[in-house]
Amino acid sequence: MRPPRVVLVAAFAAVVVTACAGATKTPFARAALDAGGTFAAAARTIDDLHAGRLTREYAAATLGVLATQVEAAPDELRTAAGASDPGSAAALADQARAGVSVVRSPCLDAGCDWRGQVAALRGTARALSEAGGS
Amino acid sequence: MKKVAPILLGILTATGGYLDAGTISTSSSAGAAFGLGLLWPIVLGTVAVVILIESAGRLAAVSGKPYAAAIRERFGFSFWLLPLSADLIASVLLLAADLGGVATGFGLLVGHDWRVLLPLAFLIVWTFAWRAPFGLIENGPSLLGLVALSFVVAIPVLASSSPPNLLDTMVKPRIGSGDLASYLFLVAAMLGATIQPYLVTFYSSGAREERWTRRTLVSNRVASVLGMGFGMTTSVGLVAVCAIVLGPAGIRAGSLPEIGLGLAAAFGQLGGILFAVVLIACCLGAALEVVLAIGYEVAQGFGWEWGEEKPPVEAPRFNLVLTLFLVAAFALSFLVADPLQLALIGSAAVALFLPLSLAPFLVLMNDPDYAREERNGLLMNVATGAILVLAFVVAVVSMPLLFLSGGG
């Protein structure tokens, strides 16, 4: 007797899932990479604005989106499963929290220390990307 | 010249109309994460969509019936509910993403939060869908969307800053440890983003709106092949720009505005403005196609009056359906508040339901009552069968991969 088609489909899906289950990143690594990417984008946006490559409107709207996107990252990094060391995860979460503050209040005018903000965001992005295994 | 004009227009509109929130989000994520390693799903998906669209146009021109009406008539009401339900779920996600895309584009131009501009996007789409003639809907946003070719123009400008061995990633993608699920998810989502069932419904209904006949078959063939082929180049350009600019900077294209940083690297402030226009034009065009496709599908299935050329009073239920659907998508966009994530999930949902939407093709295109003497030959049947097998595989793996990869 042939197995019903739905069983074959489920078996195929199960094979794919099993094969890929070992080929995924941990929730912690994913959270770190996503947050790292967002901080890298924020650094680039501020840098491009002051280099004249972006309009102020574009930069302001982009940083608003990035701030929303990354605001939950510190808590996620603290609680996500798969961190190799809870202590370094907490340190990364603190670093990310400082980064979120910068993205929320970026220097859009030349009068403040935008270079410092770009350097801090790049440092945070690098640390998170390394923690995410990239 | 009279014969060439519709072909040229078809090519131009397909070129501009190829990109939507789904293709923009999947292509940019692919380029940022895997370099040029995910160009092949774009090519494969484009070949599939050319075959499907050409078939849908041929069916409508020869039988006088658009795809949804033919399914309803040939397979009965109960069967028709299956592809309809599938299309409703996938399309509401994509429409919500496209509304968010239009609002994001406006936000980037004026410097405001896109959520504030979401009602404006809703109003523009609704006004077009409610009152604009079909020709304007088909050609206006799509012609404006030709600005998307700036991604292609940006490639030579950025070539000198291209990372070493980028071309090698086309044949040997760099799939790092733990990245396989993301790679495979993006393959499924890119195929879902390219092979959109709403395109088939819209295209075949549009063929009826424009009263295509057998004499239109040649221009249908040429426009679908060349138009989608040119359209594909915009998607390839998007992947390449993200691979050159975003990937090496560690930017993962996790939101729509990040993608514009690629064009800013090539063209400065103009690049950002161009990207905002691309977002507005492409997402507006796609939103109109999705919302009209759902209106067409429901009205044709229930046997109601339908047509964008008719005043709303002559097709009230058709216009009511598209308005209610638009309201549902607006609410979803407002609540979920991440157009790119909606687009990725919507593309995965399209992939999940593809077999349901596309399976009737094989029967209809071989039925002499519908395709008449323009029935599929052996080659087209093999190609359509291969697309169905591909759709089936993609459907089975898309959702498990979505959960495993966390959405790319």
Share of helix among residues of chain B? over 70%
Radius of gyration of chain A: 20 Å
The rounded distance between the terminal residues' Cα atoms of chain B is 47 Å
CA gyration radius of chain B, whole angstroms: 20 Å
Question: Percent of residues of chain A in beta strands?
Answer: under 5%
Structure description:
The complex is a heterodimer of chains A (134) and B (408). Chain A is 75% helix and 0% strand. Chain A is an all-alpha fold and 134 residues long. Chain A is elongated, with a radius of gyration of 20 Å. The mean pLDDT of chain A is 89. With 408 residues, chain B is mainly alpha-helical. Chain B has helices at 4-17, 21-34, 40-63, 67-75, 77-110, 114-131, 134-144, 150-158, 180-194, 197-209, 217-246, 256-267, 269-302, 316-336, 339-364, 378-405. Chains A and B meet through helix 1, helix 2, helix 3 and helix 6 of A and helix 5, helix 9, helix 12, helix 13 and helix 16 of B.
Summarize the topology.
The complex is a heterodimer of chains A (134) and B (408).
Chain A: H1 5-21, H2 27-50, H3 56-70, H4 73-79, H5 86-104, H6 114-131
Chain B: H1 4-17, H2 21-34, H3 40-63, H4 67-75, H5 77-110, H6 114-131, H7 134-144, H8 150-158, H9 180-194, H10 197-209, H11 217-246, H12 256-267, H13 269-302, H14 316-336, H15 339-364, H16 378-405
In brief, what are we looking at here?
The complex is a heterodimer of chains A (134) and B (408). By secondary structure, chain A is mainly alpha-helical. Chain A has 6 helices and no strands.
Give me some keywords for this one.
heterodimer; A: 134 residues; mainly alpha; 6 helices; 0% strand; B: 408 residues; 16 helices
